[in-house]
TrEMBL record:
PANTHER family: 5-OXOPROLINASE SUBUNIT B (PTHR34698:SF2). This is 5-oxoprolinase subunit PxpB. GO terms for molecular function: 5-oxoprolinase (ATP-hydrolyzing) activity; ATP binding. It comes from Paenibacillus nanensis. The gene is pxpB. It holds the Pfam family CT_C_D.
């Protein structure tokens, strides 16, 4: 396993640690281990960590960091130098201990999906492209257990890894101006769920009645990096009943 990293500033209040190059579970475990180590030993001025496919962005409040300098840090000429020193101590200790790269249990979240029809207008196209029947696409897509590598693009949008290779399909040549919230799509070798109504170019194969992003909730995003997702096929009637139940408890 590669135990080195690259570091660079991102403006005056963020520092980026690159821990790998590819999109794979080995790099993901390293990213999440780094996040866990930083979160467990927050330094003065720390704001948050944002994990991505192969990197961790660490945000901080410059004034708070500068005010919290230790005697050993008085020689530092910039806030960036102080933060880099603090994080390097944390991550060097982590990267030297390969046992810390073991998988964390994480959550398994089941997301119901109504495939095809008006909910999945691209299902037939995906089936034709892959040389499979629509039902085979549904069976393959709902038969996997997907890793949430990161949340990005839109609030609560999960980038999921682990999709069967047989389902890989290019993005649409012409993106849609509006994709309904809850739409489940495929783009390249990845699958994801649109939490909000946004433009997008992924091939839509279904839709979930579950809200993936609730801004007023204690945890606005239903999914977090490190979670696992399983898709459960449901009928159109079950979709409507689910939505009616959610609206009744909102």
């Amino acid at each position: 396993m590669n135990k080195t990293y690259d570091v660079s500033p991102m403006g005056d209040s963020c520092i980026l640690f690159r821990l790998g190059e590819g999109i794979d579970e080995c790099t993901h475990r390293l990213v999440m281990a780094a996040v866990g180590r930083i979160e467990a030993d927050r330094f003065a001025g720390y704001v948050e960590c944002v994990p991505a496919f192969a990197s961790v962005a660490v945000y901080y409040e410059p004034a708070a960091v500068w005010r919290s300098r230790t005697p050993e840090e008085f020689a530092c000429r910039s806030v960036y130098e102080i933060v880099l020193g603090r994080l390097t101590k944390l991550l060097d200790g982590l990267l030297q201990d390969a046992e810390r790269f073991s998988d964390s249990p994480g959550r398994i979240v089941t997301i119901p999906v109504c495939y095809g029809g008006s909910f999945g207008p691209d299902l037939e196209h995906v089936a034709n492209h892959c040389g499979l029947s629509p039902q085979q696409i549904i069976d393959l897509h709902s038969g996997g257990l997907y890793l949430v590598h990161m949340i990005g693009f839109a609030p609560g949008f999960p980038y999921l890894g682990g999709m069967p290779r047989q389902l890989a399909v290019p993005r649409r040549e012409t993106p849609r101006a509006v994709i309904p919230a809850g739409s489940v799509g495929i783009a390249g070798a990845q699958t994801g769920v649109y939490p909000l109504a946004t433009p997008g170019g992924w091939q839509l194969i279904g839709r979930t009645p579950v809200e993936l992003f609730r801004p007023d909730a204690d945890m606005p995003s239903l999914l977090q990096a490190g979670d696992r997702v399983r898709f459960q096929p449901i009928t159109a009637d079950e979709f409507d009943n689910w939505k009616a139940g959610e609206e009744g408890t909102a």
